[in-house]
Amino acid sequence: MRIIIIGGVAAGTSAAAKARRNDEGAEIVIYDKDSFISYSGCGMPYYIGGEVEEADKLTPRDPAFFKSKYNVDVRVLHEVLNVNVETKTLEVKNLINGQVFSDCFDKLILATGASAVIPPIEGANNSSVFTLRNIGDMNRIKSYINTVHPKNAVIIGTGFIGLEVCENLKGLGIEVTLVERLPQVTPGLDPDMAVYVEDHLRKNGVKVYTGQSAVKIEENKVFLENGESIVADLVLLTVGVKPNTNLAESMGVELGETRAIKVDDKMKTNLTDIYACGDCIEQYHVITGKPVYRPMGSTANKTGRIAGDVITGGNLSFRGVLGTGIFQVFGLAVALTGLSEKAALKEGYDVEVCHNIKPDKPEYMGGKEMVIKGIADRKTGRLLGTQIVGQEGVDKRIDVFVTAITYQAKVEDLFHLDLAYAPPFSTTKDPVMYTGMILDNAINQGRKLITAGHLADVIERKEKIQIVDARVVAQYEKDHVETAVNMPHSKLREQMKQLNPDVMTVTYCNKGVTGNAAQNILLNNGFKEVYNLSGGHKNYSKTKNYCNRCNPH
């Protein structure tokens, strides 16, 4: 059997390696039009910033490696021009000498990847404008920095890569301005979590423009749609990627709803003996079952392995994605998985939302606060999604949530997880468990929550409401929610006679725990409708205005 794989990097090389493990006798050839067959794309921002000192560290495997270890013929700088599905032949161009030749296959795998999106901005092709998708892009940026010594950079787009490069450019002493057309940074997050990221960026000296599009780039300036101009010696476009599907379309391969290649759970396309994997394919979401396009290196490796297994007689199958992601910027870790609140509402879920602010381990062991947003389905109690921002322990918690959501855990199940505990690693009740407890209380125990954005709307509409600040007097006098009355938790049983038990009531403290205790007192004394402010005053003061600016509701 002759297997041809078009494209390398994560998916193509994984497919080749798995196919070889299953079938020692198969002929396996990879064609890739790039110079590099395998590289760590996620490490590129750190080479630009100097944390990774040698570019070779990101490209440890070359054609000779794959030949010696897997007996796979890798031909870089070779572009597949077209494929004849009926005759199972392909036309290939050697980009070094221009020679065009034919090849044949029994099984074909498309691993053509994705390309950076170039937005319709005048001047986007200037010599000072870059994208960052492959090693060639990385080397061009590094060379430009070393030669031109830019003092000011503008990054258009605030996804993972954009923010990682932002940190690394700042580390080189380059002033950075971020431009995002949406009303918030980090579009994958809900607004009430994105605010923590934006605030952190500003505290680290990054200028941030949201709700603005760049319309023109000149030699040393970027012009925004509102007429403002920003000095820019270097411009980086990080507004997303699009699947490379031109070859697939010319062959008659069907595309999906997201305009990426449509495959089944075995990586099969609509054409016999034609498979696809990696960033060029459409995936489906674990929760909704609907098509999504989430190009990630981890998913590319996984789908490549599945394709290589299936074409050599294996029975692996794809089980979908949750859209999990994590990145770090200026020491702040940002992670997400599952459905955002906005996405869950769009899907028709009646959502319960909590904001859990807890240290990753005891404060006496140097614990640092993280903010965990949990999104659950009120009807079933199923956990739908989680977003976390914090300095330490974020990766550990997001992976627990990923596992729970994958296996359809309900919020009440999180409390019962037998998680590892010792003071250097966690609190006795881990933040994961607390998140489950808060959501379980809200959904199943009648301890309702109200978000900062919702409360701000209620206050703005002057609806009839009574708000109880359960903190001590000094905290209340320093700052408090508008119209709130101060009834410290220790005195609430005496003072609650001043409240009307028939009026909607909101309790709060600094982060939520004492607010919940106050809520319990009122409910147990006949108050009919009592809400605890999710994340307490700390979250409210941080997010109320931001949520009004870009409310998911």
TrEMBL record:
<dbReference type="InterPro" id="IPR001763">
    <property type="entry name" value="Rhodanese-like_dom"/>
</dbReference>
<dbReference type="InterPro" id="IPR036188">
    <property type="entry name" value="FAD/NAD-bd_sf"/>
</dbReference>
<dbReference type="InterPro" id="IPR023753">
    <property type="entry name" value="FAD/NAD-binding_dom"/>
</dbReference>
<dbReference type="Pfam" id="PF07992">
    <property type="entry name" value="Pyr_redox_2"/>
</dbReference>
<keyword id="KW-0274">FAD</keyword>
<dbReference type="InterPro" id="IPR016156">
    <property type="entry name" value="FAD/NAD-linked_Rdtase_dimer_sf"/>
</dbReference>
<feature type="domain" description="Rhodanese">
    <location>
        <begin position="461"/>
        <end position="545"/>
    </location>
</feature>
<dbReference type="InterPro" id="IPR004099">
    <property type="entry name" value="Pyr_nucl-diS_OxRdtase_dimer"/>
</dbReference>
<protein>
    <recommendedName>
        <fullName>Rhodanese domain-containing protein</fullName>
    </recommendedName>
</protein>
<keyword id="KW-0676">Redox-active center</keyword>
<dbReference type="GO" id="GO:0016491">
    <property type="term" value="F:oxidoreductase activity"/>
</dbReference>
<comment type="similarity">
    <text>Belongs to the class-III pyridine nucleotide-disulfide oxidoreductase family.</text>
</comment>
<dbReference type="Pfam" id="PF00581">
    <property type="entry name" value="Rhodanese"/>
</dbReference>
<keyword id="KW-0560">Oxidoreductase</keyword>
<dbReference type="InterPro" id="IPR050260">
    <property type="entry name" value="FAD-bd_OxRdtase"/>
</dbReference>
<keyword id="KW-0285">Flavoprotein</keyword>
<dbReference type="Pfam" id="PF02852">
    <property type="entry name" value="Pyr_redox_dim"/>
</dbReference>
<dbReference type="InterPro" id="IPR036873">
    <property type="entry name" value="Rhodanese-like_dom_sf"/>
</dbReference>
